[in-house]
Amino acid sequence: MNAKESLPVVILCGGxxxxxxxxxxxxxxxxxxxxxxxIWHVMKIFAAYGHSEFILTLGYEGEVLKRYFLEYEMMQxxxxxxxxxxxxxxxxxxxxxEDWHVTLANTGLLTNKGGRIARVAPYIAGRTFFxxxxxxxxxxxxxxxxxxxxxxxxxxxxxxxxxxxQYGLLDANADGQVTHFEQKPRLEHWINGGFMxxxxxxxxxxxxxxxxxxxxxxxxxxxEGQLMMYRHAGFWRSMDTFKEAQELDAIWHESAPWKVWxxx
Length: 264
Hints:
- By secondary structure, the protein is of the alpha/beta class.
- It has helices spanning 38-48, 62-70, 72-76, 113-119, 121-124, 142-152, 213-223, 242-254; strands spanning 8-12, 32-33, 36-37, 53-58, 79-82, 88-91, 101-106, 129-133, 136-138, 156-161, 168-172, 178-183, 191-192, 196-198, 227-231, 236-238.
- It has one domain (3-75, 97-254): Spore Coat Polysaccharide Biosynthesis Protein SpsA, Chain A (Alpha-Beta Complex).
- Strands 1, 4, 7, 8, 10, 13, 14 and 15 form an eight-stranded mixed sheet that branches. Strands 2-3 form a two-stranded antiparallel ribbon. A two-stranded antiparallel ribbon has the order 5-6.
- The radius of gyration is 20 Å and the shape is globular.
């Protein structure tokens, strides 16, 4: 990836993760998969394609994410602490391996997703930018997504995926005899899988903290013919519950299909 093509990546991570509450005390984006927070996996996907400038929209328990990134090098490396007035920290060996630029921005506790994007507009600085969620991973070709976005020339692109229904699907005849059973079938309709690309003009559709990304902004963009869908038929999963976190952890240890990066 040419360095000139590196784009900022806005990661929406200010929500309360209500479907995860009660199952874990850890903020959803910080729940570990394969020994690393799920948001780290999301960031690794983009960084693998040369997009390593991240803007995190903080809200609920934002201090947890701040602490994680402030202490990232410290927790990954050996270091020596010198105490006293001339104190400091000396790190040993190579860096932790992530050449990332991470901006952590407080965007309010109750701000809607669209409003969170509007609040970080100064960090986007008039550039084309990615937007995604802090809990969804896939073996997405980011280069192909960006090329698709630039070809059609519209304001916004969303990645469409076909998710799996969480229940078993039954077909039965009039007598109640089951004629077909399928566990967790793949849905026929496309859904929003995140991994979005926006032009700066999308910011004009965001009106204050109450701006709702999915129920307002995207509806308006679609009505005006400014929203396109990039179809991703490969692996994709989101993590809304602790059960899904456990499933992703198991998948990571078996095959890790979203691991599109090379280990350092």
